[in-house]
Design a protein that fits this description.
By secondary structure, the protein is of the alpha/beta class. It has 21 helices and 18 strands. The chain has a seven-stranded mixed beta sheet, with helices on both faces. The longest helix has 15 residues. The site of thiamine diphosphate has 17 residues, from α16 and α18.
């Protein structure tokens, strides 16, 4: 057995079942090992941003890492933006990055680069293997590191000779590190804060945004009247009918300030105090009102769900949570209504199948669907966690690999979707069950808003042309078709309702270009 095979066997032993790949010469032994070892699905992405974004979507839904296979420094660098988003989402990911053979490094061949330097800012754990005999142990440590709560990126650099030289054996899985229990002091502090009569908000992030944590938070709300909130961009939020509906913190600083103006106590569960996404001249960055008491109930590596349940018990909260969303699918828009994000959102909410997964990078077109899905069928909502656009299509791709029995709906701005549209090809090749809805406003619309907000005065034609996508017009139906995805363009609410309802009924990838 060579080092590469010992690594693939170790990854499988450690529960890694999928490798999203874009390999090159230095990864050929790893690629060859994929055929020798049972239990590792290999999925090709045609750009590394599609590979790393898919690993993020997979990890958010499977709650364990996929591996990526990336080609030296440049391959990793192409994937960095979506690794940045994955880091912000605290998704477990194991990157395997090939490198030149150890003895080749001295010659500074063309593909030599500072791989460590590329890897460090996004990785919680980085290691470069030094011997074929240690690669397996390194792989087991990488998986353990990726799974360390709350989840992080582990990057293992694999010099080509450590892959091709003789290894001894695969390594067994290392123990999983469980989320830490919160101290009883932290529970007591939060419970007494919730009893002191002050206006309180509980801000939740991480695994506690799944049904169980939300139910505990809803019980706390039922007893104490506290508001339950989540960040604007939560990695994964379970919502829709039967779930406790929680308030989402708005995007712009002044809206956050307004939302939080009455809050006297902010209890944090795996979350940080909200700040403005960007700084703007004359506007606050820190959005929690001055004097607000900040109480840490659970840190990110701790078990937020158990902490919320313990607080609910300590308060003597009723078993029934407050704020459970009833099933109330939105009506379809009236015939002849304009096709915009709100009518499109109604259609999405109306036809959304049970247990769907929404990958949301709809940008300025996202509010309509957020409103229309509060009381839609229960679903998971995945958002753009690190602000680096081009996440949505790959994320949907990875989520569909993780959850083959669930429909994935990807809602995307046309500008962001252009960054990683290669993910469509992977969806077609793997026959993944994704409905991609592209909001074709032919604009970087959010930047038109930001241009005004930052106080850049009198934008001229050059400035405005930097935010405009009209010339030439993208044709998403053709782009999707060209990558093997059945695609259609719609211009009316009737056509979108037809296209979306038929796409969710069938299996396999579809693309709908919504002209708004
Ligand atoms: C990697 C990266 N590059 C550039 C940006 C800056 N940026 C933010 S939003 C945006 C345009 C988004 O356009 P689109 O997806 O069409 O959504 P819209 O704003 O039109 O709703 C750009 C270029 C970014 N956030 N990330």
């Amino acid at each position: 057995m060579n080092g590469a095979e010992s690594l693939v066997r170790t990854l499988v032993n450690s529960g890694v079942e999928v490798c999203f790949s874009n390999p090159g010469t230095s990864e050929m032994h790893f690629v060859a090992a994929l055929d020798k070892v049972e239990g590792m699905r290999a999925i090709l992405g045609l750009f590394e941003g599609a590979v790393t974004g898919a690993a993020d979507g997979y990890g958010r839904m499977a709650e364990k890492p996929a591996a990526t296979l990336l080609h030296l420094g440049p391959g990793l660098a192409n994937g960095l933006a979506n690794l940045h988003n994955a880091r912000r989402a605290q998704t477990p990911v194991v990157n395997i990055v090939g490198d030149h053979a150890t003895y080749h490094a001295q010659y500074d061949a063309p593909l030599a680069s500072d791989i460590m330097g590329f890897a460090r800012p996004v990785s919680g754990w980085v290691h470069s293997s030094t011997s074929a005999k240690t690669v397996a142990a390194d792989g087991a440590r990488a998986v353990q590191a990726a799974m360390q709560p709350p989840g992080q990126i582990a990057t293992l650099i694999l010099p080509a000779d450590t892959a091709w030289l003789e290894a001894e054996q695969a390594a067994p899985a290392l123990p999983r590190i469980a989320p830490a229990a919160v101290s009883s002091d932290a529970v007591d502090r939060a419970a007494s804060a919730l009893k002191n009569g002050k206006k309180t908000a509980v801000l939740v992030r991480g695994a506690a945004l799944k049904e169980k944590g939300l139910a505990a938070a809803g019980r706390i709300a039922a007893k104490s009247g506290a508001r339950i909130m989540c960040d604007t961009f939560a990695p994964r939020l379970q919502r829709g009918a039967g779930r406790v509906a929680i308030e989402r913190i708005p995007y712009f600083a002044e809206q956050i300030v307004e939302t939080l103006q009455d809050v006297e106590q902010l209890i944090l569960v795996g979350a940080k105090p909200p700040v403005s996404f960007f700084a703007y001249p004359g506007k606050p960055s820190w959005c929690t009102p001055e004097g607000t008491e900040i109480v840490y109930l659970a840190h990110q590596h701790e078990d937020g769900t158990a902490a919320l349940e313990a607080v609910a018990e300590a308060l003597g909260a009723p078993k029934e949570p407050a704020g459970v969303a009833p099933l109330q699918k939105p009506d379809l828009p009236k015939t002849g209504a304009a096709l915009d994000q709100f009518t499109a959102g109604q259609i999405v909410g109306h036809f959304l199948p049970d247990n769907a997964i929404i990958s949301d990078e709809a940008a300025t077109s996202g509010i309509g669907s957020m409103i229309s899905t509060v009381n839609a069928a229960p679903h998971d909502h995945l958002s753009l966690t690190g602000g680096s656009i081009g996440q949505g299509l790959p994320l949907a791709t990875g989520a569909a690999v993780a959850c083959p029995d669930r429909k994935v709906v990807c809602l995307h701005g046309d500008g962001g979707a252009m960054y990683t549209l290669q993910a469509l090809w992977t969806q077609a090749r793997e026959k993944l069950d994704v409905v991609n809805v592209i909001f074709a406003n032919r604009s970087y619309a959010i930047l038109n808003i930001e241009l005004m907000r930052v106080g850049a005065e009198n934008p001229g034609p050059k400035a405005l042309s930097m935010l405009d996508l009209h010339n030439p017009e993208l044709n998403w139906a053709s782009l999707g078709h060209g990558m093997g995805v059945e695609s259609v363009r719609v211009e009316t609410v009737e056509d979108f309702a037809d296209a979306f309802s038929s796409a969710v009924k069938q299996k396999g990838p579809r693309l709908i270009e919504v002209m708004i």
